[in-house]
Amino acid sequence: MSEKTPDRVFIFDTTLRDGEQSPGFHLDGNSKLRIARQLEKLGVDVIEAGFPISSPGDFEACRRIAREIRGATVTALARAVREDIDAVWGAIKEAETPQIHIVLSVSDVHIDRKLGMTRAEVLKRGAEMVSYARSLCDRVQYSPEDAGRADPDYLVETVETMIAAGANVINIPDTTGYCLPWEFGEIVRRAIEEARGSEKALFSVHCHNDLGLAVANTLAALAAGARRVECTINGIGERAGNTSLEEIVMLLSVRQAKLGLEGGVDTKEITRASRLVAELTGTPVQPNKAVVGANAFAHASGIHQDGVLKDRLNYEIMKPEDVGLSDSRIVLTARSGRHAFHHRLGRLGITLADGNVEAAWQRFLQVADTKKEVTDEDLRKIAAAASEPNGHETNGHPPVTDQLLDHNHVADTLRHLIFG
Ligand code: KIV
Ligand code: ZN
């Protein structure tokens, strides 16, 4: 029996728009272009380059990206007003495949408190702007902002109105990160099943991470029939950020057999993309971040290290090589066991005489209790000291444990002087 070919999920990257618009993440034109080139290597389907009406610098950055990038659709954001749409078109029309992205609210909270309009006025404005954008560009995406908190019937009406006006992509956003996965899945399912003409449009989703559910909500939307996902490298974006590209892409890859979906990007470029975004935004990735955090492929406890050294499958559900890392890391700490200790000594080419093994291990434990990680340099000293008849090192320095205890002693003295 032949296996079913997985369904393609299109990856829309908005690192340069939603990601860049968050506080502290500003990128200049050159940095945006460098990231866009890395996204091109990653093989994303759509790059949202920016919000051209917002500043001349962003307009120019979008224009450079549109001119240079090949292979991916290039889009940029407009509010539902002609000036914004003209700015987007001016910035992206030279792209190989340009797309205009229009956003206009759909929830009553936004319609009353932000726009001061009626539902009917919003529908009319949206449809007029979609058809105006279609007069300029073949591809128009419409995002009913705050769909996650909208009246589902009015959302369905909005979706069918915008498709009738010419939108070929409908992107359903959970703008405030409010939805539960099954709620969001139901919103998307209803939009696809109930809006007339929905078969003419590609359904996309855009989830925020205010309650940590952005990836789960995106997955629920895929299960409900959406086939495009908006996401950002390192999950950056407004407030708590957006669906993280690396998480959703690796989720599709690792669980492909179960989900029957595939992302179509070169996952080996993920780490490079993550590091570039961290470097250019000046914002490091939290160590425990899934897929790209420094600890994502690191093993520190003795039980896990022993398991991984026997077979990586024991504790790793994806290969570090698949995201562009050379290997996983065995971190030597006070919670490590003998297996990892000897493994690392072996990798350093250090062989201990049988009679020195126990002394070296005891010294390792002493050192490990004083610091976060025992380095290769520490291990060399530990091994050298264990081989000495008096247990001291030969290089004239005190043994490593004494040095560390000295540091602790200095720290204690300082603390005593400052705090009494
Ligand atoms: O969060 C949001 O609703 C957006 C739209 C522009 C898609 O960023
Ligand atoms: Zn957003």
In short:
This protein is an alpha/beta fold. The protein has helices at residues 15-19, 29-42, 56-68, 82-92, 108-115, 119-136, 152-165, 181-194, 214-223, 245-254, 256-259, 270-281, 302-310, 338-347, 357-368, 376-387, 400-419; strands at residues 7-8, 10-13, 46-48, 73-79, 98-105, 140-145, 169-174, 202-207, 228-231, 261-262, 298-299, 329-330.
Task: Outline the low-pLDDT stretches.
Answer: 393-420
Give the number of domains.
2
* Rounded mean pLDDT score: 93
User: Architecture of the largest domain, according to CATH?
Assistant: Alpha-Beta Barrel
* Secondary-structure class: alpha/beta
CATH H level of the largest domain: which superfamily?
Answer: Aldolase class I
Question: How much strand content do the residues show?
Answer: 5-15%
Q: If you compute it from the alpha carbons, what radius of gyration comes out, rounded to the nearest whole angstrom?
A: 27 Å
Q: What is the tally of beta strands?
A: 12
Largest sheet: 8 strands, parallel, barrel
Enumerate the strands of the largest sheet in spatial order, edge to edge or round the barrel: 2-3-4-5-6-7-8-9
Helical stretch count?
A: 17
Text of the CATH class of the largest domain: Alpha Beta
Distance between the termini: 77 Å
Distinct ligand kinds: 3-methyl-2-oxobutanoic acid, zinc ion
Helix residue percentage: 40-55%
Order of helices and strands: EEHHEHEHEHHEHEHEHEHHEHEHEHHHH
Morphology call? elongated
Provide an overview of this structure.
Helix content is 47%, strand content 12%. The chain has 420 residues and is of the alpha/beta class. It has two domains: 7-281, Alpha-Beta Barrel (TIM Barrel); 298-419, no CATH class. The protein is elongated, with a radius of gyration of 27 Å. It starts with 6 loop residues before the first strand and ends with a helix. Bound molecules: 3-methyl-2-oxobutanoic acid and zinc ion. 3-methyl-2-oxobutanoic acid (KIV) is lined by residues 18, 77, 103, 143, 145, 171, 173, 175, 206, 208.
